[in-house]
Amino acid sequence: MEKTILITGGAGFIGSHVVRLMVNKYPGYKIVNLDVLTYAGNLENLKDLESKPNYVFVKADITDEAAVKEVFEQHRPDGVIHLAAESHVDRSISDPLAFIRSNVMGTVNLLNAARALWGDNTEGKRFYHISTDEVYGSLGSTGFFTEETAYDPRSPYSASKASSDHMVRAWHHTYNLPVVISNCSNNYGPNQFPEKLIPLAINNIKHKKAIPIYGKGENVRDWLFVEDHAVAIDLIFHKGVNGDTYNIGGNNEWTNIDLIRKLCEVMDNALDREKGESEKLITYVKDRAGHDKRYAIDSGKLMNELGWKPSLQFGEGIEKTVDWYLENDEWLNNVLSGDYAKYYSQQYGNR
Ligand code: NAD
Ligand code: TYD
After folding, report:
1. pLDDT surpasses 80 at 1
2. Could you tell which of 14, 193, 302 is best to mutate to test the pocket of ligand 1, judged by most ligand atoms within 8 Å of the CB?
3. So what's the pLDDT on residue 339?
4. How many CB atoms are located within 10 Å of the residue 241 CB?
5. Three-class SS of 103-146
6. pLDDT confidence of 89, banded at 50, 70, 90?
7. Ligand 2 atom closest to residue 219's alpha carbon, by position in its atom list
């Protein structure tokens, strides 16, 4: 094998798309997917890769220092693409410590393990930390986050991600660890756990259940199709400048209410329902505590320096996403019922 790449959180939403891209595009790389399989990690996302000779799954917790060390010693990765994290803002509000453990402590364990393995011999080595635009805080009705925007995280989730970004930069400056960071806007697409807005709404519309909209639905997010994020990650991993940060966004801003109306229209079409039927399910509920008003990313650096651009228009991306969820009933039912844990033990025993 030319190289070994350790991908953390590869059984999750974005991670599974990154693992698939890397395994298929680089048959000469050994891809090691390290994931503890929380409620959000699901090996069904990677069923198509199980027989690939360049793919290995390791069940381990990044908060477990000894387990992380062992994985690094056994597989000796040349590169790390770190996605494992607790990722849902609402859960961070009810259980912040879980976010500090996985997102901050877990990241530090990985940084230490990479440093211990690579020492001063960092030629061809890279630690790539995947982060979020939420570290920059909340925008008013104008302006964009750039790589120079000061950090101003406001939720336990974004504060834990901001903290991990600072740790990664500290390991770069203090120990010369070769690192790169990217901060991406909201992703959507196949395999997203149905606690996040778009898959939750798809599932509720399908079952004619209320679609909960926080507050007045006026908060704005910049949505990017997950496969376009995976392409950006591949590019930044291979071509990004050591120590640099890259913002990734869809240049695709929607208020939550407009987004849900669009989704209702696509779902009415897909389900042969009368126009306007799904919109009747929209229900305004209590706002999220500390709800950030607007996120919007300036991806100019990534576009100009590395030549990336999103491949899909939002209309196309949302239709693909709806089709995927409607065609993958079993995935959705398994994820919702927790049956994927059974799948794991059938497939892998207690490993
Ligand atoms: P996800 O919740 O779908 O998946 C996270 C994965 O990490 C799961 O497979 C889970 O089992 C694993 N994991 C969690 N804690 C772990 C631990 N302690 N040890 C090992 N594995 C653990 O998340 P996602 O939406 O795919 O996000 C992936 C990364 O991208 C995160 O770092 C997130 O902050 C970042 N990000 C997400 C978005 C988005 O819109 N979803 C946008 C920008 C950045
Ligand atoms: P979410 O998908 O949780 O992503 P994030 O909070 O990381 O941006 O939420 C996207 C937006 O949708 C956010 O403004 C909160 C809002 N939202 C709702 O209005 N209702 C819901 O049930 C959920 C989960 C989110």
Report:
1. no
2. 14
3. 62
4. 11
5. HHHHHHHHHHHHHHHHCCCCCCCEEEEEEEHHHHCCCCCCCCEC
6. very high
7. 14
Q: Using one digit for the tens of pLDDT, what is the confidence trace for 32-53?
A: 999 999 999 999 999 999 999 9
Which one-letter amino acid corresponds to residue 185?
S
Please give the DSSP secondary-structure letter assigned to residue 273: P
Pairing assessment for the beta strands 3-8 and 79-82 based on DSSP bridges: parallel
Q: What domains appear along the chain, each with residue ranges and CATH number?
A: 3-188+224-251+294-312+340-348 (3.40.50.720)
Query: Does the structure show a pLDDT above 80 at 344?
Result: no
**Region 130-158: what's the mean pLDDT?**
98
Mean pLDDT of 111-130: 97
Q: How many CB atoms lie within 10 A of CB 328?
A: 15
In the prediction, which pLDDT does 15 show?
A: 98
> Mean pLDDT score of the chain, rounded to an integer?
95
203 and 28 Cβ atoms separated by less than 8 Å: no
User: Burial, 231: exposed, middle or buried (Cβ in 10 Å; 0-12, 13-18, 19+)?
Assistant: buried
Do residues 255 and 286 lie in contact, with contact meaning Cβ atoms separated by under 8 Å? no
Round to whole Å and give the CA distance between 110 and 23.
Answer: 22
Pocket lining for ligand 2, CB < 6 angstroms = 89, 186, 196-197, 200, 212-214, 219, 221, 256, 288
- 14-23, 164-173, 229-238, 333-342: segment of lowest average pLDDT: 333-342
Indicate if ligand 1 lies below 6 Å from the C-beta of 220: no
Structure tokens at 141: 């009705």
Ligand 2 centroid distance, CA of 121 (Å): 43
